[in-house]
Amino acid sequence: MKAFLMTAAEDSINLLFNEFKFNTWEDISPAIGCHTFDVVRLDENGDCAYIDDEGLYQARFFWIHKNYPTPIANNALFCGTDEMGETVDFKTPLEVLKESIKPVAKSELYVYSRANPDDYRPFFFTEEELGIGCGEADCGFDCDYSTVKAGECQCYNNKHDEMESRCPV
Questions:
Q1: Which distant-in-sequence residues (6+ apart) come within 8 Å of 148 by Cβ?
Q2: Which tens digit of pLDDT belongs to each residue from 28-42?
């Protein structure tokens, strides 16, 4: 299967992406350098990231994806899933993936965590980058970030509920 392995450069600021092919789930832990792994869904198309399940215990670096609300620690293996939850080739182009991820400095994480947010993305991405708003022309709400965050945009809520119901992972 075609996937992308993301690691940090020695400076922990620059993220490196390499194409990675694997055959079974047993290849995942050694690839991302962990004992146990978890998966986070990143896109409606089934793309996800295998991450170090114990990454916060020995975090070397952090990163955040525009479709996931909290920073994630350490390396990741990006791949796709099908409607049955089986691992398949990663569908998102590499350039789009790179634009969707930003490194998070430990000092930034410390400062922003003091606000105890449920969603860290507004600290790292603009509303335009996040695509905040439901995008429906006939939506009766002004779907800026605060409206969506408050759960007041019914169009966005309906799309989110429908996406979660199709989540194979």
A1: 132, 133, 134, 156
A2: 888 888 889 999 999
